[in-house]
Amino acid sequence: MPPENYPPQNIEPPLKQIRTFQGDVAEALGRQKESLVSIQQTEQSRRRDGTGLLLDEETGENRKYTFLLFLGGFFFILMGMTGAWFGYQQYLRKTTPPIIAVPANRFISAESVEAIDLTGATRDTLIATFDAEASGVATGKIKQILTRLGPDTLAKPVETAAFLSILGSRAPGSLVRAFDPLFMLGTFGESRFIIFKLTSFANAFPGMLSWETDIAQDLGPLLSAGGVMKVIDPASVFRDMVIKNKDLRVLESGGSATGTPETALVYSFFDNEMLIISDKIETVQAIIERLTREKLSR
Description:
- This protein has a domain at about 110-295.
- By secondary structure, the chain is α+β, with helices and mostly antiparallel strands.
- It is built from eight helices and eight strands.
């Protein structure tokens, strides 16, 4: 039987795959996974060959270099800061005014100072030494005469009681005890003065009234220029005087060649804290004015 002839069928071509976003993402992820795997395999191969170890060594060297660079930078910064601090300290040392040690018994400012050693001194040597140091001071200038027991600058200062004892003073004991151990001896121009610091004004005031009978002989030669006491009439006594609202006690000499009385000794209290004794009224006034100014400026 002859084969049947079937008409040929029209075979449709396969449909072409359409690209979508989802498909592209899936394909990219597949390639990335393949890339990661290949990278890992390559790295393992390099490590087996020693190349990976070389990279680790290079990384270590880089870290060491970075650390040394940081350490060196820190060192130079530290050195710079140290140099700046040292330079600043040198600047302060050169520009800061020197600290001048002020004697504890400097009650008023003085333009100059000189020290005398009273070790083993007598009344006559004390007066002569003081007169030599107190001479030649310019008018209106104060020179302080420090009294010490020794030639060294750190020698112990002579205290008030010892100073009066060297002079052979007949000051009442209550008055001496009313004086502080510190006192200031000096000259204002050619005029001499002494300032006693007080611990008790209540005892100092009556004590001075009692000492008035002997103070001219005790302190007169010390406070007189040249160490020569002015001639004082035995009948002369201290009298009160008020100048610029300040109370003074003044003892006058027998008079000058013209017959005019001259001041032999004068003393006054300052704020019940100090006793000022001098051979001139003007000196006491100048010292009081300085004490007042310096007290107000503190």
